Structures are given as structure tokens and as C-alpha cells.
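User: For my dataset I need records formatted as: sequence, then C-alpha cells, nothing else. Please produce one.
Assistant:
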Amino acid sequence: MTPLVDSFGRVHNNLRISVTDRCNIRCFYCMPADNVQFMAKEKLLAFEEIERFVRIVQPMGIDKLRLTGGEPLVRRDLSTLIAKLSRIEGIKDIGITTNGILLAEQAQDLYDAGLRRLNVSLDALSAEKFKQVTRREGYEKVIEGIHAAKAAGFDPIKINAVSIKGITEEEIVPFGHFARETGCEVRFIEYMPLDADAAWEREKVLFADEIIDTLTTGIRPLVPLANQDPRAPATDYEFDDGIGRIGFIASVSKPFCMSCNRFRLTADGKIRNCLFSLEETDIRTMLRDGGDDEGIRQAVRESIGAKKEGHEINMASFVQPERPMYSIGG
């Protein structure tokens, strides 16, 4: 079957699947603090619908999946979905991105279901700063969840830390030490314009090069790893003594759009060919109204075919999507 290629020659093999827009914290760069209007449950794709969609697109070359939210672990019996997806022939890699609040109680079930790749979103290593960013308690639960995941067999565990000027500078060096002491890979993510309050400003972005300088001064020099996947969103480094791995997702300062291999399925069954896309393709209706497999594949092809060259964050023409991050899927 013909691979999923856009008009710029980018081959898409990586599907990110949001399983819910609900979340148990309220990070300011993602969600409103209160009065969030979540999707009605009947609008969410059932596990069987998600499984069918993956089976439909897998022959087009899809071999990597990542489950996101909202917070995916608030979706009941998520390990059941992971078990279904892990049995699909041709799927080589399944990951999940979680805030870790519920990880301690679910880590073993997730691992037993076939999950092997785990990213934990954690923007601060101090409980006070964690509460400032998330507007909720729960720091200790996240740390407990990381330990439980290590005990269950997850290795490596990646820590995703959004970096924001005026808030998280003092967390950089502690995260460097955390990577060196725990074996977790810390990935710093530049602050992106996907907040529900549309309060993003470029001046608040803490750039990857600034973080590298801070880690070099505060701990020791970083050196880039050899043989990196050119399609991966992160650029990986390690400290020059070989202890501690650090990644950078420099979406704003060094966009990687031209090597992008990802597209998204939202929790309510819409295809998005880019995180910042202003258009969506309704797959849920096709799944529920008798759409055949080839018709669904054609809809996906058309969506990927319309993918833009890049996200345009650094251009005057940039328009922030109406959907904030929690509704799109991280």
C-alpha cells in the first residue's frame, strides 16, 4: 500500500491518539484554571473505534503510536486499549505521555499490557513551583509514579519539562542533576502558543540554547549524541562525562517541521495533520455511519496531502488554533 506522504515528501508513520480531553491538573499553558467545558462522553471514540482506525491506517506505514490526553490515565481501563493496540501486526512502538498523578497505581498494568515507552510531564522539581504551574497539588504523587514506573520495568523514562521565562529558570540545574541521579532522560520543551487563555508571548519562551548554557555553567558541558533520528522532535545530548541525558524540543527557536512524521487523532475523532492545524477531518462520523476502510484511508490521505510546510509560529501570519492543547492532544 502507498505510504502516507505529504506534498513536501514527508513520510508519516507516527500517529498520536488522544483518548480524552479531561485532566486532573490545570497547567496554565494548556487549560483554563476553572470552568473547563469537556467533551460529552458519547463524542469520545470508543476503544473499539480507536482500534479499528489503527488497523485501517497501519498498512499505510503507521508503526508508531503515542497515547495522549488531556490526561490519558483518567480514561478508565486504559491498559485494555494498550493491549488491543499492541496486538496489531506492524505496530512496533507504543508510548504514552502522562502527568504521572495516577501512574503509581497503573504503572504495572500498563507495562503488562505491552506499553514500553513512557513520558512524564513534570515542569518543576519543587512542590511550590509545581503548584504554580499546575494550579493543583500532586507533586509527591508524580514522583511516586516515576518510582513505580521504574519498578515496573519502564526504562528509560522521559521527563517532559516545559520551560518558561520568569517561572522555570531555577528548575533547569535541578533537572540536570535529576537526570544524572535517576537515569531518566529530561527533555526541555519550549513554551508554545497553545494555551486556553491565549496569553502566550514570545518573550516568555526560554530557548533551548539558553538552557544548554545554564546546564553547562551549573553542572558541566553537554555534547550532542551521535546517530540521532532526524525525524524525532527532540535533539539529544549527554553531559561530557557520559552521565545524564538531556533532550530539547525547540519548536519555536529551531522548528523541525520539515522532518515531521506525525499526525493526530483527537479524542472526539478528528484528524489533525499538525499540532497547529486550523482544519480537521471528521473520522468519527465515518466510523459510526458505515464508512468503509478505503474511504477512511482516502480521508487520511487528503488530510496529510493538505499539510502545510510548517507551523508558522515565527511568522506574522501565525494564527493560534481555537482548540487549546488539552483538547487537541499533546
